[in-house]
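Write out the 3D structure for:
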Amino acid sequence: MLAKKANLTGRQKAAIFIIAVGSEVSSEIFKHLREDEIEQITFEIARIDKITPEDKEKVLIEFNELMMAQGFITNGGIDFARSLLEKALGNQKAIDIINRLTSSLQVRPFDFIRRTDPAQLLNFIQGEHPQTIALILSYLDPNKASTILSSLPHNIQADVAKRIATMDRVSPDVLREVERVLERKLSTLASEDYTSAGGIDAVVEILNNVDRSTEKVIIESLEEEDPELAEEIKKRMFVFEDIVLLDDKAIQKVLREVDTNDLARALKSVDSEVQDKIFKNMSKRAANLLREDMEFMGPVRLKDVEDAQQKIVNIIRKLEELGEIIVARSGEDELVV
């Protein structure tokens, strides 16, 4: 039996809540939990002999307050939630709830604008400094970020892309200042820890979603301004496994340019879908010979595999630049024959 005035742990509170809501609701909750979480809560339930009315009421009230706070955060950000909670529960109680909730949710900066329509957001940020725009886009979903990047003036697109790619760690003070300048319409920082933002992977993911002309303008500008950065971005924009996105005719053109030994090494570490796509576009005899080469090759260093894959990716990009094949991009119109 739990002591009447005991300080309950998080697991004990979860167990009491599960018991209080009943088996039907609990079974639905368990569907959204990990196996280890279910085991831990079940263990706590088994240890509970009896729940005092005070503990049950305390847990249900706390749950209701947390759900209310989370709803406020979702609708308007942490400042909005804190303001409403202070009016409803008092200053200290509001601070306690927000601190508990944000420490577990790890609310990201710019939470508010991630729910804003891209067209409205574009009007909201396009007059800002390119570094500010880059910081905001780094925290957005890549699809939304690509839409905004495509709509920015051409003369700053490459600058913004470069700033995203070269961004590393962002100070909480900088984030707070950006949020303050943007008239508190953005969420505040959830913790005092430095947060990762941007980087080459971020700009690659965004560029993979923009239209072809925007991508071309940005890459060409970066090639002039920072050739090494441009080359690194190009290397990551189409990975070897993306070969399954090519149509059969394009794959056959690529295979005519590829060294057989490179192809055998490149296929050593990929899944069956990629291998089947390649074998399907070869003659039966050539496919069998390639399988034999892969089998007799034995273990291959990962670096050698990656080098072979990169050679093939470079061939694909070269053929695309020459207009001999088409590499599909997310969001582009399908071809009509």
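The chain has a mean pLDDT of 77.
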